[in-house]
Amino acid sequence: MESVSNYQAYKDAIKKTGFVLENRVAQLLKASGWTVISNKYYEDDYSNTVREVDLIAYKVSHVQHFDVYTTLVISCKKSEENVWALLARDINLKDPNADWWPMHAWSNDPALQYRLAEPNCAKAYHAAAQSFGVVQALSVPDVEVFAFQELSKAAEITSVTRKQTHGSGSTKLASSPKNDVAIFSAITSLMKAQAYELGSLPNRKKKPSLYQFNLLAVADTELLRLHFRGSDIECAEIDSEHYVGRYIIHRKETFSRIRFIRASAFESTLQDYGRLHDANAKWVADECDSFYRDIVQDDRRLNALLPTFRNEVRSFIRWKSVSEAGVHVDMETATLSYSKKEKKLLIHTDFGLEIDAPDKFNQSKAIKERVSKALEKVYRYEGAFEFIDDIPF
User: Fold this and answer.
1) For 263, which DSSP code?
2) CB 212 within 8 A of CB 66
3) How would you classify the pairing of strands 335-339 and 240-249?
4) Of 122, 232, 267, 283, which is least packed with CB atoms within 10 Å of its CB?
5) What is the dihedral of CA 208, 282, 198, 311, to 10 degrees?
6) How does pLDDT run across 192-215, given as a tens digit for each residue?
């Protein structure tokens, strides 16, 4: 039977690993209302190997007709011998080759997809989050981090010359560079885990949703910023640093924000990520309302939801068109436009050679009721509408 002293040795050994940190971070997240998944595995598409991300945490809120997820992908690293040094220089926010406002979000809702695809969406999202009270979670980097290095923790060394007597000599603090393996491993595991999640969502998520991702590298050691200013290097100990990196993922170039956080400061950052989740819910609600406002008067937004509208009415119209109008009508080719003069939505439909078919459609109570419900559901439109013949030439 093992002795108590042996048990203590085992406990002391595990404390030298990153598992204690990983558990502490998970418990802090749970205490703050986050749902936590530990040790999620995914396949690395480049090396065809299985990789692991330490923690995924999320909060979810139901907004209008969809769910909003704020997701934290977290790497936990511990080093007793080395500090993490982030090498930085002055940032140029106007650099045309950089994206200091990256946004990684996914949605299967057509309205939100439309908004996310707009050119200035990411920058507008960052500004909105700040206006909603988010302080640090999405802040623009103070500096441009361009490299990383683990450095041995400074220790005293004594140098003795031949002329010096026994026991005397000069003492100074010294450190030596190691490598960037642990830091680079944290970065790549975070970005590839995010890419995997973004790639898998279309296949597994059916309910209307929006996911917003944040990458955090939590280090149980000192964080240093080595700021290069001309020929000088300024060194400062920090609790957090935003790094925006450019990488090739799935053969596509992407910018990703990774936030380095010192383990001792992690708990204090959680409140701001809670505010970020609240901000995400508010932003999505505002964007959705804006999308549907006066939608019928904007052809681009009308067309963005046109496939959804067609799907809503296709089967019913195919079934009812023969009995109500004596003609087979396929809504697959139907288009929409708005007449400002008549103040009504026009549904352009191919009725073939049946000249009186549009009138029969407009007089059919069943068709009008079904299409009215579809227009309200898809476009939030409750106004007047009319079927007209779509003349092909």
Assistant:
1) G
2) no
3) unpaired
4) 232
5) 30
6) 899 889 989 999 999 999 999 999
Q: What is the CA 73 to chain-centroid distance, rounded?
A: 10
Cβ 150 vs Cβ 82: under 8 Å = yes
More confident residue, 327 or 215: 215
Q: CA of 3: how far to CAs of 11, 12, 322, in Å? A: 13, 14, 86
As a 3-state breakdown, the chain gives helix, strand, coil percent values, each rounded to 5, of 40, 35, 30
Contact 25, 266 (CB under 8 A): yes
Amino acid identity at 147 = A
Span 14-26, pLDDT tens digits: 777 778 889 999 9
> Between vectors from CA 125 to CA 97 and to CA 281, what angle results, nearest 5°?
150
- CA 76, distance to chain mean position in Å, is 19
How far is 255 from 249, CA to CA, in rounded Å? 10
Q: How far apart are CA 69 and CA 2, in angstroms?
A: 47
Tokens of 209: 């949703």
In which element (H, E) is residue 56 found? Answer: strand 49-63
Give the DSSP H/E element, type plus range, for residue 42: strand 35-44
- The closest of 43, 108, 38 to 69, measured between CA atoms, is 108
Q: Is the pLDDT of residue 287 over 80?
A: yes
Give the up-direction half-sphere exposure of residue 119: CA atoms within 13 A in the CB hemisphere: 0
| pLDDT attached to residue 179 | 85
Q: Classify burial at 237, counting beta carbons within 10 Å of its beta carbon; exposed 0-12, middle 13-18, buried 19 or more.
A: exposed
Collapse the DSSP code of 137 into the 3-class scheme (helix H, G, I; strand E, B; otherwise coil) and give the result: coil
Token duo for residue 338: 């708005």
